[in-house]
Amino acid sequence: MEQSVKGQVAIVTGAGQGIGRAIALRLSQDGMNVVLVDLQGDAVARVADEIRANGGEAIALSLNILHAEDRQRMIESALSTFHRLDALVNNAGVQRIALPLDVNEEHWDHIMDVNAKATYFCCQMALRHMIEQKNNGRIVNIASIAGKMASTTYHPIYNVSKAAVLAMTKTLALYAARYGVRVNAVCPGMIETSMQDMVDHEIGRITGQAPAEIHVERNARIPLGYMGDGADVAAIVSFLVGPDSHYMTGQALNADGGVLTY
């Protein structure tokens, strides 16, 4: 059985707002020391301040996970500050709205580079250290139900990128299991975040609907009848990072109010 996470160290990418912020706060509440990473330095610094004000330990890093040297700095900062690395939560991601025939190569490259390529190489870098440390490391990749289904046709490359996240989660889980490292994913559905607000506005631009109308339609497709929030996703991440999931790897757990049942 794995040990309690108290005193262990987690990196959370995209931690400056929304789901990432909720994950960072939850892991700190669980007793972990957290390394918070975001492109928006002011935002992630505020989250770190919030954690420290509540008695937790956190450092904030303003960096771009698209750059190999920044990914290296992320790992090195965790090790130099807290002297270990137990968990990585790959939450950073981007979204862009366009119909399938309107997607261009720049659109494809941007979404795939952030959501898939950077996630993979963050995993790779963390795995090297977790395997060397022999400390039952855990990686949790934030995917999406869009990776399991074509949730809409308005973000086709986002769908592709999140399917890639699920594929790499399964492959890396198979590889890392022999070293005692577990790799799992969480698939949020419709979650109340600023990204979701942006999606509603952009879809409205294409369809001519008001964002509030789109919001109501989204809720109507959720069996539980309402959109979740960041804490709902963070609770599942907490479980996957914690010892109660010690016999789980290569899994993709939905946080979607019942939209998907597989």
Task: Itemize the secondary structure elements and their pairings.
Blueprint: E1 9-13, H1 18-29, E2 33-38, H2 41-53, E3 58-62, H3 68-82, E4 87-90, H4 105-133, E5 138-142, H5 156-176, E6 182-188, H6 194-207, H7 211-220, H8 230-241, E7 252-255
Parallel strand pairs: 1-2, 1-4, 2-3, 4-5, 5-6, 6-7
Helix pairs in contact: 1-2, 1-8, 3-4, 4-5, 6-7
Summarize the structure in words.
This protein is an alpha/beta fold and 262 residues long. It has one domain: NAD(P)-binding Rossmann-like Domain (Rossmann fold). It has helices spanning 18-29, 41-53, 68-82, 105-133, 156-176, 194-207, 211-220, 230-241; strands at residues 9-13, 33-38, 58-62, 87-90, 138-142, 182-188, 252-255. Strands 3-2-1-4-5-6-7 form a seven-stranded parallel β-sheet, sandwiched between helices. Helix 2 links the parallel strand 2 and strand 3 (58-62). The protein starts with 8 loop residues before the first strand and ends in a 7-residue tail after the last strand. The mean pLDDT is 95.
